[in-house]
Each structure stands twice: as structure tokens, then as C-alpha cells.
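Bit of a strange request maybe. I'm writing a small parser for C-alpha cell strings and I need a real example to test against, not something I typed by hand. Could someone generate the C-alpha cells for this chain?
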Amino acid sequence: MMKKIGAFMAAAAGMLFFAQPAAACTGITLRSADSATVVARTIEWGGSDLNSRYAIVPRGYRQQSLVPGGSDGMEFTARYGYVGLSVEQEEFVAEGINEAGLSAGLFYFPRYGEYVAYSEQRKDRTIADLQLVSWILGSCSTVDEVIKAVEEVDVVSIDPRASTVHWRFADTTGRQVVLEITGQQPHFYENELGVLTNSPGFEWHLANLNNYVNLFPGSAKPQKMGSLDIVAFGAGSGFLGMPGDVTPPSRFVRAAFYQISAPKLATADETVLQCFQILNNFDIPVGIESAAGEAVADIPSATQWTSATDIAGRKIYYRTMYDSAIRCIDLNTIDFSTTEYRSVPLDTVKRQPVVRISVAD
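Reply from user aminoacidic:
Good idea to test on real output. This should exercise your parser:
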């Protein structure tokens, strides 16, 4: 089966999601005592409901990339089956994992990325940035294969007015890399820390951590100022001064320190839940990015969904702004050689369930 999508619709969707400053993402990585790696992230968009879906993509599924002004870019067929979480359109997979244990996700990267200029002569080797995750999940099993694959194609934006993105890839060895396309060239960075947010570039964020060398877990020791005792008001004063705003640099710093201070738990299942707990701290409420008097979107949160992926376990978990219950798709239960392609809304009912407790005698 070949899947094609309308160029105008896709371009409009790409602009909607990536052209405004209300989009954000925060990614972390935790490892359990039994050596499982869990990658987790949020995805934010404060402008409207992204109508996110999950897609089950079988082996042999064929797609064709969008290109500027058309839908006749490179054709690609899934060698590996995968599960992806998409935004706006089912083809725009923002996070996913394939049956080989490769995880991939895209993150908003405005004003710092620069893709290669689109060439009509190379359209059969051209992939839209919003479809790169789909192509990689269907084609690659390791980070090394990802690096080699990206070198063979042109990655372009569907619409020049839309923002660029950057990507995170991780495999079953625990290796993780960040891909940023700047100066029209792909650059891969080893991400041993496992944290990713948005602009500026990844190396800048790592260097910026040096500005917070004074932060440490636990509580600061009491001090004397003459005869006056200076003591902490409460627990966690070692992190006093940690930035609390929602800008990408501040979220990167906060994610890094929350991650490194998190205790290592025994199993992947426990670590998945730990990731969701940490990422609670990165939920962005609707309204804080809107100026006074501006219309605010009628959605519960700018953080539209949060996901966690147990790479070795081949499981992807998610919760949404409409339903905080954690749901799991287990790739081990899917036969990707026989299953059919399907795309399903993350929420069938867009309202937070409330369990009422009866106290009647």
C-alpha cells in the first residue's frame, strides 16, 4: 500500500505546528538497575489541539515524502514495523520506536537550523523534515545506521515559513545522538547526558550547564553572618537558584539536574513511572505564553502529551492533556508481518476521567 498526502494540507499543518513560539519539547533519559534505558519527552503546543494519534505501521508499508509544492518526494518502504505518535497528520510522527529497538523523536528548533535548499533534480532523494522520523523508524535498527542513512538524503522543510526541527535517536545499546542540520549540513552529537529541549543548539546547552556549577542535590549547610544564623527555609535548598521559567535553556538545566539526582530504580517499569513523575515538572499551562488580552486556546494544557519509551522492552507509553492515565502499546504483542496499518486518536474522549468514590454505608 502506498500512502500519499495532499501537499497543501500538509504544508498548512506544518506551519500551524512549527511557525509559532508556543511549541516546546523536553526530553530526558533514565536507566534502571537492570540496564534498561527509558527515553521520555513532552510535546507542547499552546495554539490549538494537535489532534495527536498513534500509528501502527507494518513491515512493507510504503509512503512518499512531501516536498515543497508537491507530494512526489522520495518513496520509502518500511523494513521494520514501528509504532509512532503523530501530530496534526498521521504521517507526521514526532516520537516512536520500531521492532528493532530504535527510538526516534523530533523536537522544535526555531531559528537555529538550516536545511539544504530544495532541488527538483534530487526530489527522489528528498525527505520532508516532519517525515524523517517515519522514514528512519522504518529503515534503521541502530544509531550507526541512522547516521549513514541521513548522509544519503536531503532533508527539507515543506514550507520555508515553517520552523526547523532537530532530532533524538537512541538504540538498544544505550547510545543516543542528537541530529541538528545547520549550515545545510547534518551534524550528529553524542548525547551521553540524555537531555534535549529546543533552541539554541545542543552544544550550547551543554556549555550553559557550567553556569549552574553551584547547584547540588540536598540542602545547603547553615551559615553565619556575624551573629545571625542563615539557614534554609526547607528541603532541596541545594537547588536554590535553579531557573524555573519555561524557556528551552531553563528547561534543559532543570531536566539535567532532576535527571542526575533521580535514584536508579530496579526495573524498566518503575523507571517509566519515574520519568512521568519527573516530566510532571515540565507541564506548561495554557496562557503563560499569551500576552494580556490575547485569545487563549480552549485546551487544558500547552503540554499536549508526554511519552516514555522502554527501548529494550519495546514498549511506548503515553498520557495526554485530556487524560492523565498512562497507556502502553507493547510492540511485542504486534506481528508486524501481518498487521494492517492503522492510525488511532490518542484520546477517544477528550475529557479527564474522574473516578468518584462512594462513601455510602
